[in-house]
Amino acid sequence: MMKMNFEMPNRNPEQENQEGSLIEQIGEKIEEVKSGIAEMIEEVGKKIEQAEEAGDVKESGEEKEEFDNNGSSCGRGHGCMGSMWCGRQRP
Amino acid sequence: MKGEYTGAGRQLLGIWLTNACNLRCTYCYIKEKSDLTIDFDKAIEIIHSQLRQPGGILEVSFMGAEPLTRFDLIRRIVETILAEDWPRPVCFSAATNGTLLTEEMKPWLVEHRDVLMLGLSYDGEDEAQDINRSGSSAAIDRDFFIETWPDQMWKMTISRDTAGRIDRDIIAMHERGMAFSANAAYEEQAWTEEQIGGYELALYRLARYYADHPDVQPCNLLYSRLDAVICPEGERQPCYCSAGESFSFFDMQGRAYPCHMFSPMVLPEERTLHGQFLPQDTDYEDPRCSACPLRGVCYTCMGTNYAYRGDLRKRDPMHCRLFMAQIRASMYMMLLKAGRKTRYTQQDVRNMAAIRTLNEAFESGRIGME
Lengths: 91, 370
Ligand code: SF4
Description:
heterodimer, A: elongated, B: alpha/beta, 10 helices, 12% strand, disordered N terminus, binds iron/sulfur cluster
């Protein structure tokens, strides 16, 4: 699996239409991640399948079973009392 | 009777305390700032009216522009209410920019910390705070907030100017040991394509950080239970918000609204939507989301939908794009984590199945409203 580079591309002051080319470069990086994800699905998926076939998959237990969005009940806080209020409902 | 901050049947009562604020944050949605402040008797009348009704804990939230501009009033209201016995427990809270806290306020706040909780708005590293919030980092005694209210989440807002650096800002929040909720603000200032792309790249960097630090619980932007984000076939988009249900808001005249987003604090008078309650059984699904498997967890704010798009159901396409980026980054994070494991659990198996389903949905264009 290649190591993906998520750094923001640098602006090149020599180049015309800097804005356009920067957006293009960001777009290319994001496309790279998408194909990287597809590749990882294959690789990791295979490992998990093998573990399943070998009967080597434990019951979960250490993970929280309930749906957890780590904060306000709607997940939105800007302009909302969400983070002040719903966030505190978590045990 | 002093209240607890959690528990069933609790009700949040927002009171518009003041229009005054000493900062000019870039994403502020408050229509106009002035010295206008609620009258003491009016505030007491509103709180009494709610305390007399049956129910669980009543949390009174002092809202405004900046509540600490009127600390004197907060103190008087809290002491007056606590001096009487009520049939239901009561407590207080306020979200603050923290810059007006003085040494004189501190002893009273410490003494009342179990009944009045202050939540700080802070946007990550000091530099981000200064970019978004009028260069205010040096004026805030962060340690006082951490020590006095260790369980209170901080509000971290992501603006278009800090979108490309959220990994640094979120890591800074974790390193300070703060519980926080990070949220993007895009309604007041539209984000450029570069800023949206920068946000997505920063999310991937953040995903990598969480994979490298498995002991740090991912913040609210990333999801670890990917099977739980997929909405079952046939289920409608839920109404997540508590506005007009357990939350209501009163303005300085004592008029009620489902939340402040429907009030003259944000809207011109002719567009305000009065009434303490909003029907919760109404279908709030945006028709553009009907086929999207994320519709079950994709949050929406009915108040901003109404304020900025004139329709309770109408989501912002920008929100859609940012949320899709969060889900992709969550998939990446969970794949990285799973790739490093040597033993698997049933939850890994469910996550993997969900990642496949989500990937197919992204590829076939079923996710997204456009
Ligand atoms: S991701 Fe977009 S299409 Fe899907 S539910 Fe959210 S806003 Fe709607």
